[in-house]
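= Protein in question =
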Amino acid sequence: MNYVNGQRSTVNGNCSQQSTVNGQRAVGAVISSLALLTVLPSSRLAAQAGTIAITGGTIYPVSGPRIANGTVVIQNGRITAVGANVAVPAGAMRVDATGKWITPGFIHANANAGLGVAGLNGQQEGGVQGDVNPSFNPAEGIDPAAIGIPIARTGGVTGAVLVPGGSFLPGQAPAVNYAGERLDDMLVQRSAAMILDLSDNSRAAGGGSRAGTMARVRRLFDDALEYARRRPDFQRDAIQPLSAPAKELEALLPMLRGEIPLAVVAHRRIDIENALRLKGEYRLRMVLLSGVEGWQVAKEIAAAKVPVVLEPNRDIPSFDGLGARLDNATLLREAGVDVVIAQGDPGGERNLRYAAGNAVRNGMSWDDALRAITALPAATFGFTDYGTLEAGKVANLVVWSADPFEFSSVAEKVYVRGRELPLRTRETELRDKYRTLPLP
């Protein structure tokens, strides 16, 4: 229990009606509007704008060792103190987390919740036609009221990198918080990465051959740099024809200048090696997406200091990754590679913690798995105010019933920017509606 101004409330919620599913208490009072499933009313948000002290739990800050019987103090959306002997400010709202686990909110680095309806095919907002679209950014296709957002939060996912769909150069990936009434409330970084696909999916972009695809990449990158050097000549039409429209070449420049990373989809060893060549030739900041056969070139990836965003549950061989194996993450970590976990199941963002748990099952350390869904995705994609529990960081955190990688554990409280969000979803609404059926 916790006490606020003398009033008793449960750690699982502050509503008068409660029900129990898999050990988790869900907020009662069925609401008909789907929009209310995603966002809190402004009055509720304002009410939580004061100081909050979460006390008595075991804290896993990621930036340091675990803290038993610790306290996290939140004020104005940021963490102001974390530790075992932290004084609780006068007037703070106390949340008793005795016996609970407290972690940073998880960051899904290959998500689509918010882009369309529940990740369903044909209902996506994450891609456009054509294969050279570096200027495309799906940010304005994000729906803050999408039903997949609160579902993701039930799995402790408080933020995400939304990777656009499509082949070759599909566009830019924005980073978001999974809370807010408007797009501007959600956006953390409008362009966290430029996406390049070097997998089988993009062979057609090079005329049917990987060699042709690589040649086309180099032509586009060279033309973008030439365009930047000779804008006046381009405007006078005093330059040879370029391989893409000016707006597409312009969009490549922040990546070529190293301001944002190039995130390369590469499954096979040959694709990974091709990506590393591009990094060296153009001195790029780079991230590998997928890296199914990354374990075969782990030393080379580590030497290039390239993080890998992978799916630890991907072990079914295909012609675009015959070397798939469940301990890929473990072997990469042992070689010194920074591994980010992001199981890319459409509509399945809440299952990120299970992917991390499976990585642990296959040899990855528990601490590395937690870092792979918190601090590392934040650092990899450049929003370093997130991902750890320490003073000054944005207060995205989760109070768990137990180890978050255990199937039976549940998120009991979720905070985004210091505001507690309901764990009510369309699924719980339907569950409660049909729990008791009328007699025939």
Observations:
- The radius of gyration is 23 Å.
- The domain at 2-105+401-434 is CATH 2.30.40.10 (Urease, subunit C; domain 1).
